[in-house]
């Protein structure tokens, strides 16, 4: 992930982050990228939600904690036609987008939003959740253990907590792309990992934690019920939408990490981003997206 204020990119674990020499993230500024990414990752989320639908047939109330602009919240509304969905986020303008999306997709009558800091905002829920989902939001909270305990408290007896964390870094290009030094993707991943560690360390109330999610879910009083990873595999030849997502992601890496790269890697990224260059991701034939996300589920004992 990157540096330079207000920049954002795809985290190595497959998600969008803001970047900065500081690690403050302007979530609102990232809305278009969050939406584009969640839409591109639609086939992966459909598989994950299909799995959850088998595990949790009638959740009643679904809470999407750290929903962002609500692409996934709306997918939950579609996958669970009998459920109400509440999207919760600390960035109110993203929730405006979520509500508009739900209305556009015909779910407005069973879709609500709740603005506020996690996990405290969940105390304002009027009823306990049958399914509480948190994708790539938990790791933005300083004390993840305490947050999981708070999430667990908002579950109905027998309710399920599902968190999406970890997985594998996204890759967009082969190891050797014919320009620059092979292995650029791995070097960018390493920079992102450093950024991520700094981001976590600088969160308010940050607590270092072994990211053993099943153990943390168990410590929160839940019974770990499953771990599954889902693949996004968009092979070459890439669609225009995929190319534009790859270009946006690499562009943010270039902006954010430019100073930390070698001159050779910087030049390579510049060529990859130059629409006039036949070697760029706008034109080259070997662009793809390959990514994996992991979902952990746990149930509150009845
Ligand atoms: C990486 S985005 C994930 C969005 C969505 N869940 C997805 O998977 O596409 C993280 C979201 O968590 C929200 N967030 C981060 N820290 C938060 C906090 N302390 N309280 C409430 N929301 C927070 C951000 O506003 C952002 O919408």
Describe this protein's structure.
By secondary structure, the chain is α/β, with parallel strands linked by helices. It has one domain (7-235, 288-299): Vaccinia Virus protein VP39 (Rossmann fold, 3-Layer(aba) Sandwich). It is 36% helix and 23% strand. It is built from nine helices and ten strands. It has helices spanning 31-40, 42-55, 71-79, 92-104, 144-153, 184-201, 213-219, 240-257, 263-273, and strands at residues 7-11, 15-19, 61-65, 84-89, 111-115, 129-135, 155-164, 168-171, 223-234, 289-299. Strands 3, 4, 5, 6, 7, 8, 9 and 10 form an eight-stranded mixed beta sheet that branches. Strand 3 (61-65), helix 3 (71-79) and strand 4 (84-89) form a beta-alpha-beta unit. It is globular, with a radius of gyration of 19 Å.
Keywords:
23% strand, 10 strands, disordered N terminus, binds S-adenosylmethionine, eight-stranded mixed β-sheet, 36% helix, 9 helices, 302 residues, alpha/beta, two-stranded antiparallel sheet, Rossmann fold
State the gist of this model.
The protein is α/β, with parallel strands linked by helices and 302 residues long. It is 36% helix and 23% strand. It has a single domain (7-235, 288-299), classed as Vaccinia Virus protein VP39 (Rossmann fold), CATH 3.40.50.150.
Which range best describes the helical content: under 10%, 10-25%, 25-40%, 40-55%, 55-70% or over 70%?
Answer: 25-40%
Number of domains: 1
What class would the helix/strand composition place it in?
alpha/beta
Output the CATH class name.
Alpha Beta
CATH topology group: Rossmann fold
CATH architecture group name: 3-Layer(aba) Sandwich
Q: How is the biggest beta sheet arranged?
A: 8 strands, mixed
Report the uncertain regions.
1-16, 18-22
**What is the rounded Rg?**
19 Å
Q: CATH homologous superfamily, by name?
A: Vaccinia Virus protein VP39
Average residue pLDDT: 93
Q: What is the H-and-E element order?
A: EEHHEHEHEEHEEHHEHHE
Overall geometric form: globular
- Annotation, overall tally of beta strands: 10
Termini, distance in Å?
41 Å
Number of helices: 9
Bound molecules: S-adenosylmethionine
Beta content comes to 15-25%
């Amino acid at each position: 992930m990157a540096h330079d204020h207000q920049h954002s990119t795809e985290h190595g674990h497959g998600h969008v982050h803001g970047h900065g020499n500081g690690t403050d993230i302007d979530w609102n500024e990232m809305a278009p990228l969050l939406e584009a990414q969640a839409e591109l990752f639609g086939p992966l989320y459909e598989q994950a939600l299909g799995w959850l639908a088998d595990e949790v047939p009638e959740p009643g109330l679904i809470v999407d904690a750290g929903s962002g602009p609500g692409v996934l919240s709306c997918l939950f509304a579609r996958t669970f036609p009998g459920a109400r969905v509440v999207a919760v986020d600390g960035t109110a303008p993203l929730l405006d987008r979520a509500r508009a999306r739900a209305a556009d997709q015909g779910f407005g009558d069973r879709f609500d939003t709740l603005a506020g800091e996690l996990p405290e905002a969940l105390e304002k829920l009027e009823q306990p959740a049958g399914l509480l989902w948190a994708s790539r939001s938990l790791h933005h909270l300083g004390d993840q253990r305490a947050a999981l305990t708070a999430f667990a408290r908002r579950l109905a007896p027998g309710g399920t907590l599902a968190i999406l964390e970890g997985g594998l870094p996204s890759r967009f290009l082969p190891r050797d792309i014919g320009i620059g030094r092979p292995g650029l993707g791995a070097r960018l991943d390493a920079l992102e990992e450093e950024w991520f560690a700094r981001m976590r360390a600088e969160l308010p109330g940050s607590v270092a934690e072994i990211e053993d999610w099943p153990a943390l879910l168990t410590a929160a009083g839940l019974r770990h019920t499953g771990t599954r990873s889902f693949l996004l595999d968009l092979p070459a030849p890439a669609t225009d939408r995929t190319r534009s997502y790859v270009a946006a992601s690499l562009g943010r890496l270039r902006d954010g990490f430019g100073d930390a790269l070698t001159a050779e890697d910087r030049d390579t990224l510049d060529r990859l981003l130059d629409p006039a260059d036949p070697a760029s991701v706008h034109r080259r034939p070997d662009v793809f997206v390959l990514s994996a996300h992991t979902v952990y589920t746990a149930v509150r004992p009845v």
